[in-house]
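FIELD: query
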Amino acid sequence: MSQKIEIRCSEIIRLDDFLRKYFESNMQSLLDNAGKNDFELSNGKIRRFIISGSVSVNKKQIRRPAFELRGNSFISFDYDQDKFFYEKQPDDIKFEVSDKDILFEDENLIFVNKPSSFPVEQTITGNRDNLHDSVVKYLWNRNQSLRNPPYVGIVHRLDRETSGVILFTKTRAINKDIHDLFENHSFEKEYYAVVRQNNKIKVGDNFTVENYIGRVSKKTQAGKWGSVSEQNGGQYAKTEFRVLENCKINGANCLVVCCKLFTGRTHQIRVHLSGLGLPIVGDELYGGFKSNRMMLHAYKLSFIHPITKKELVIISKCPFYEKK
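FIELD: result
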């Protein structure tokens, strides 16, 4: 049964941060009411909750997690405990960051080679291993004279199933510069993917997909995105693709594709390829056949460093394709 929860906020804070604080302070009572002992509630879950349209600020629906509450704000949201606490938890690999996983590091930034089947984010209940916490532990072990854990900021994300380059910040001072670079699409992002070839679908060696993407699954189901009109809340998305070679996997004809992102929407590459009838191998959510992993890898991240003003090109070797 759904109920409306109403809260007043008297501080200046982002909407997602405010809701995270609310759930942190009320988690035990929410769990008790739902008859649960524990629950892995990720920061991404809070963002999806906001994006779904469940939250209003001063009686106006807000779908932007970064929306800034200006103080003396009235927040309300529809809360259905059965839907809210539904979360299928996949089996994560065991992983700890070590020296070999660091692709580049300076005083402000650290680039890590993320494995597949491992989540990026920390969780509110704190029981699920994740890459962010592993980076904090790695940096702290290197400098055990620190009394408190070192700062590690999350500035972008990769899906749990995706491997490759991911950036964390080491100082709060650089966060705005990095955020602005992402907002202005100043990062060049390239991925490799292996897709199942569809003989009924003819694509050239180079092709581009531009459309609007939004959530198409129910809130009680695994998050699935697809083509949604701008009028219905879809966000503009653009990806360029280049076919690199043909290959066979488990007897199936496949293509290795280079994917260049111009926007950073949830599941963007997965949605664009599956929409063409070319699902990624291992991506069962979007129609790909089962594999030991999803064959999507963040190969390259390049940009102008906001401090040094020099170009940085960070590359992660792809585990399933070697560039010729």
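FIELD: remark
The mean pLDDT is 88.
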